[in-house]
Amino acid sequence: MSKVRKKLIIANWKMNPQSAADAKRLFAEVKQMASKLAKVQTVIAPPSIYLPILSSLYRGHRILLSAQNMFWEEKGSYTGEVSPKMLKDIGATYVILGHSERRAQGEDDQAVNRKVLAALKAGITPVVCVGESDRDHREGTHLTFLRSQITKALKGVSERQLVRIVIAYEPIWAIGKGEGAAMQPDELHETVLFIRKIITELYKKQVAFRLPVIYGGSVEPGNVATLLAEGEVDGLLVGHASLSAKSFNEILKFAQGGVK
Ligand code: PEP
Known about the structure:
It contains 11 helices and 8 strands. 40% of the residues lie in helices and 16% in strands. α2 links the parallel β2 and β3. The longest helix is centred in the C-terminal third of the chain and has 18 residues. It is of the alpha/beta class. The site of phosphoenolpyruvate has 13 residues, from β8.
């Protein structure tokens, strides 16, 4: 199933670039490539403040917009927060939830779960980030950790809702480094299978296999082809390499060619 689906390539701009003018410029350069690629679903996740500007620059479906976070409540006295409905209203169709950089600031599994449920309710696709900080092959503690993160994030999600979720597997030890630090494709493939096994323990097999599982962690033009082909992932979450239009467009091109 994952072979015929469009590859999902998400650019996580994090807290960059530093001005709206630079954000517009980067978006325009990516748009030139992304709008031509029929086999790739490109998603740009800028800082929320740039979402309305970018959504006014593009009307097609080959590029969709994502937020990097949101709050679970619909409205009210929550200073500094943004609601799912507000995001939907300004044109975001995805939201990254439970990114390790947010978890490092105290976001726990319960908060991630509340946000997942709220995003689904509002009709936004949650990109649920999971991943261990290190691997212990003897004890397998990273597997126990992954199982716990996934199970907690999906608590209360129905079978019907599950197909609207994306799991982003992002091993923390591989994030924000260079091309050589990304996970080895064979190890990634094994982990993706393990993630699918966890989901099949919770939901029907056919439904579990429709859920896109993507990978993030030092994806660059030099490793994208093997990660996609041998890692058997449905797409990629790209951090630092998405801040250079040249690098990100290369990644998009590989993703277009990599779809069988
Ligand atoms: C991320 O933090 O989501 C990420 C994938 O970052 P990088 O590509 O820089 O490792």
